[in-house]
Each structure stands twice: as C-alpha cells, then as structure tokens.
Amino acid sequence: MTTLSTSEASVLTAMWASAAAAELLRIAREREHQLTVTFSEAEPVRDLAGALKLAIEVEIDERIGMTDDEQAQLRQLLAPVAEFCRAWAR
To answer: Which residue has the higher pLDDT, 38 or 68?
Structure first.
C-alpha cells in the first residue's frame, strides 16, 4: 500500500471519487441544457482510477471479512488499475 494510513487513504479515496462524480454531473447538466461543455482541468477517469486503486489497497490491507479468493480477485484487479494510474502520470 501507499505510505498513507488506512484512514488517510480512505478519505483521499472518497475525495477523488466525489470530485470525479461532481465533474461528471456538471458535464451532464451542461449537456442537458445544451450549453457548450467546457472540460475543466479535472480528469474524472483518472480520479476514479486513483480512488479505485486506493480503495483496493485499503481493502487488501484491512482484509475485513475477506476470503483468500476475494483477496486474490482484488489483487488481480489492482494490477491493471495501478498500471493505468502509472501510465497516466507520465
């Protein structure tokens, strides 16, 4: 996992996911009213991917009620999500 505590990672995950959701809702509202959609500097896909990566890391680290199979599935999902995040950061 990252150097963040579980609590810090959880808060950061929620913030990224919330910011991405807000941006997507803004785009939907502007399109609904047929306004010219201007994309802000926000990157909802990047933010959701980052949030998903951190959420998976927190769940794996905490192992709360998780079977070995469930943990293996999360690790399998984590690999491509982490690679996506690394590639986006380049």
So the answer is: 68
